[in-house]
């Protein structure tokens, strides 16, 4: 406060009393200066001029962007601007001025503190908690000066709502507390020079530094030397951060004492109020995990060797062994089966019965397979004729359903053994009783003839199987033969025997059961019984085959099938590791040594990189195929807009379409909202669109449409490309069902794994939708459709 003289326009002098107050920003920086000028030339002439002064004063305080109020020491509000009562959430000035000043404070002692500061003429600016009209509390910054107006002491107050600033300060304090106490090692690094400006206690302990010791050091000090220097590692990571804003991955670090260890680091950019642009890096020690991974790799190698050994065993089994899916496609066969059809195992894989047998014969075999698939019941040792170049042969075929973890039949495991010789032996037995006995004695089949409740004949093979001497067997009554049957199988065997006793004596009975040999061994046998005439009288001939090894094979085949899926998944994961290394080194060469390479080398590196990308895509497809087969995929559906996803995919593929000079026409609903997993449906749309682009000759037209039908969104992708034959359509959605058009003069792109549509079909069906294709034939274009159910919740 001061008195000064000023000169009026008419040159007369006027005395004024000048009072000023500095208003600050929330950061504390000066914002502007408020000045109050009081004309004190003559009090008698002040009335009129005071009125004008008050008007201007009110306009001034009204224009100030902070709350202004004039209060008395007794706690009454005399005047305020609109900002003041709005801060306190009152509707009008009149309403605000009626409220006692003390009621505006959350803590009445803060009001007393203000009066005390005024009385002692101390600093009168501080932060205080106020109350809104509704009683809610907020923080305010208060600046107050004491002033005399017309011989009356008043307080001129200015205040601002600083609740948001206080919350941010509290948030920063909380973040600091969290940084101090988290288990991960966290540090901040200045982006411009790579100097560590902050490290939490966990990081200091992790790297073996004393508190504060690592501050001010270059970030390269914690990078362990590998094939790159610590400085080069730093440059690579910071270069990626400058472009993308984030980096995460495994990195080899070094402690203060030189100990090497592995960390997983998450690094991102952050604008720090004190340090400017910094890298925020969180390190997690993964040394134990890396050691566990190494052990897993070694274990997988051992498993791989075991799998190879099992493959070799299967190849040398003298029988036809196969594993097929529920769509009639061979997934795995042994060498014996492939040789029987004069092809390799690889050539037979993926083919169906209709690819290798005449239509009528293939249909009969497939109908038999379907019985097993639909019923879930195995067919064991079914004798079937087999026509070969050498004439008709007989095989004993067993088909076992393969179930996934949900109990669904996903395929069948089958094996067939050539029993032609055994069939011939049986025929010869019918020629004469004399020949029958001769052959029976030499046969490898266990044979017993029952007649008149006695054992009339038993051969050495039977004795060898059940380990009872022939003489003891001849002393048995017919019912004594049941004593060797395992007790759990006895009811089943009696049931089979009763079938003959109920009337059809000529019926051939065939069944399997377990027997207990005289030495106590458990064996599986196949028993075939048939009525015949022996020595002129009715008799029953029973053959017995030891199928214990065959049963063990069945169990091994089940395990092998399980191992097959695991092998596919693990092998794909194994391929990814060297692939990432190759791709990474190629990228490094192109980024770091580009200027030192000649054009030919650069072209070769780009070709390697493209090959890596293709192989990477194939591995991804193989992994997804394996997951589809084993049911490992669990959808994470969310409420999404299918229209937005289609447009996003189109934008990504527009460059490829432009290269092919295609015209793309889009006619879809703007809002197709339903529940689906965006990443999975993205794969489906990109696959269908890219196929349309690649398999349509240049300057083609691709149309994308949508419709709603039966509470489903149906998406169509139509092209005027190469079209599809009926044969093409049958194999299109199967594994490796790729349509080739080489050597036909068509400008199309046919690269790919042949798994895309198979995976797409699986993904759509997981969403309870359907996928199909329509085409009028070759060179007449195609239209692919897929549907997704409309789910509102």
TrEMBL record:
One Pfam family this sequence matches: PAS_4
Keyword Lyase part of the UniProt annotation: no
Boundaries of every Histidine kinase domain copy: 570-792
SUPFAM superfamilies for this protein: ATPase domain of HSP90 chaperone/DNA topoisomerase II/histidine kinase, Homodimeric domain of signal transducing histidine kinase, PYP-like sensor domain (PAS domain)
InterPro entries: HATPase_C_sf, HATPase_dom, His_kinase_dom, HisK_dim/P_dom, HisK_dim/P_sf, PAC, PAS, PAS-assoc_C
Ranges where the PAS domain occurs: 193-244, 306-376
EC number in record: 2.7.13.3
A GO molecular function held by the record: phosphorelay sensor kinase activity
SMART domains: HATPase_c, HisKA, PAC, PAS
Catalyzed reactions per annotation: ATP + protein L-histidine = ADP + protein N-phospho-L-histidine
Keyword Transmembrane helix: no
Annotated PAC domain residues: 1-52, 124-174, 247-298, 376-431, 509-559
The entry's keywords: Kinase, Phosphoprotein, Transferase
NCBIfam families: sensory_box
Protein name (record): histidine kinase
Species assigned in the record: marine sediment metagenome
């Amino acid at each position: 406060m001061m008195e000064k003289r000023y000169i009026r326009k008419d040159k007369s002098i006027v005395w004024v009393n000048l009072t000023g107050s500095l208003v600050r920003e929330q950061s504390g920086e000066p914002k502007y200066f408020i000045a109050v000028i009081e004309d004190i030339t003559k009090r008698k002439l002040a009335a009129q001029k005071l009125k004008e002064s008050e008007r201007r004063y009110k306009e001034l305080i009204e224009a100030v962007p902070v709350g202004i109020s004039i209060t008395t020491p007794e706690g009454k509000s005399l005047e305020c601007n609109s900002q003041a009562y709005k801060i306190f959430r009152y509707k009008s000035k009149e309403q605000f001025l009626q409220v006692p000043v003390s009621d505006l404070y959350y803590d009445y002692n803060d009001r007393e503190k203000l009066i005390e500061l005024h009385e002692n003429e101390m600093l009168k600016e501080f932060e205080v908690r106020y109350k809104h009209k509704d009683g809610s509390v907020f923080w305010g910054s208060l600046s107050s000066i004491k002033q005399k107006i017309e011989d009356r002491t008043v307080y001129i107050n200015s205040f601002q709502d600083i609740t948001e600033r206080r919350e941010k300060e509290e948030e920063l304090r909380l973040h600091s507390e969290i940084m101090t106490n988290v288990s991960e090692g966290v540090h901040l690094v200045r982006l411009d020079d790579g100097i560590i400006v902050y490290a939490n206690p966990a990081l200091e302990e992790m790297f073996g530094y004393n508190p504060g010791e690592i501050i001010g050091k270059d970030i390269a000090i914690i990078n362990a030397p590998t094939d790159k220097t610590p400085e080069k590692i730093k440059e690579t990571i910071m270069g990626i951060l400058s472009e993308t804003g984030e980096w995460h991955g495994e990195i080899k670090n070094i402690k203060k004492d030189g100990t090497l260890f592995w960390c997983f680091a998450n690094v991102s950019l952050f604008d720090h109020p004190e340090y400017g642009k910094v890298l925020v890096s969180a390190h997690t020690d993964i040394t134990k995990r890396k050691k566990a991974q190494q052990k897993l790799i070694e274990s997988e190698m051992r498993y791989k060797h075991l799998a190879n050994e099992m493959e070799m065993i299967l190849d040398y089994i003298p029988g036809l062994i196969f594993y097929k899916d529920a769509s009639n496609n061979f997934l795995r066969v042994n060498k014996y089966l492939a040789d029987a059809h004069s092809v390799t195992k690889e050539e037979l894989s993926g083919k169906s019965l209709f690819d290798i047998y005449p239509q009528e014969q293939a249909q009969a075999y497939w109908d038999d397979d379907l019985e097993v698939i639909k019923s879930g019941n195995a067919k064991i040792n079914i004798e079937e004729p087999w026509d070969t170049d050498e004439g008709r042969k007989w095989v004993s075929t067993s088909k076992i359903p393969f179930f996934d973890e949900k109990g669904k039949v996903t395929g069948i495991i089958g094996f067939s053994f050539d029993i032609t010789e055994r069939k011939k032996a049986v025929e010869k037995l019918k020629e004469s009783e004399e020949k029958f006995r001769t052959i029976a004695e030499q046969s490898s089949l266990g044979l017993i003839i029952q007649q008149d409740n006695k054992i009339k004949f038993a051969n050495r093979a039977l004795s060898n199987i059940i380990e009872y001497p022939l003489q003891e067997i001849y002393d048995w009554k017919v019912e004594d033969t049941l004593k060797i049957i395992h007790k759990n199988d006895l009811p089943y065997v009696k049931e089979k025997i009763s079938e003959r006793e109920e009337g059809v004596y000529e019926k051939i009975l065939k069944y399997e059961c377990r027997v207990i040999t005289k030495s106590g061994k458990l064996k599986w046998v196949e028993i075939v019984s048939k009525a015949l005439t022996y020595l002129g009288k009715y008799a029953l001939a029973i053959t017995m085959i030891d199928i214990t090894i065959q049963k063990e094979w069945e169990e091994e085949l089940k395990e092998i099938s399980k191992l097959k899926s695991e092998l596919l998944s693990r092998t794909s994961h194994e391929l990814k590791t060297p692939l990432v290394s190759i791709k990474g080194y190629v990228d490094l060469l192109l980024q770091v040594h580009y200027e030192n390479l000649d054009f030919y080398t650069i072209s070769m590196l780009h070709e390697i990189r493209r090959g890596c990308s293709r192989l990477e895509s194939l591995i991804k497809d193989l992994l997804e195929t394996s997951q589809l087969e084993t049911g490992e995929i669990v959808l994470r559906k969310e409420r999404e807009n299918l229209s937005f996803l289609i447009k996003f995919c189109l934008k990504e593929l527009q460059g490829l379409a432009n290269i092919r000079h295609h015209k793309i026409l889009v006619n879809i609903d703007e809002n197709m909202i339903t529940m689906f997993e965006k990443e999975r449906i993205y794969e489906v749309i990109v696959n269908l669109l890219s196929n349309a682009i690649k398999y349509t000759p240049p300057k083609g037209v691709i149309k994308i449409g949508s419709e709603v039908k039966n509470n489903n969104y149906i998406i169509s992708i139509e092209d005027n490309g190469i079209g599809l034959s009926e044969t093409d359509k049958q194999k299109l959605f199967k594994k490796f069902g790729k349509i080739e058009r080489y050597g036909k003069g068509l400008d199309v792109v046919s690269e790919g794994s042949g798994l895309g549509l198979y995976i797409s079909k699986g993904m759509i069906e997981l969403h309870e939708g359907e996928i199909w294709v329509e085409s009028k034939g070759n060179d007449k274009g195609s239209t692919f459709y897929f549907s997704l159910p409309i789910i509102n919740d």
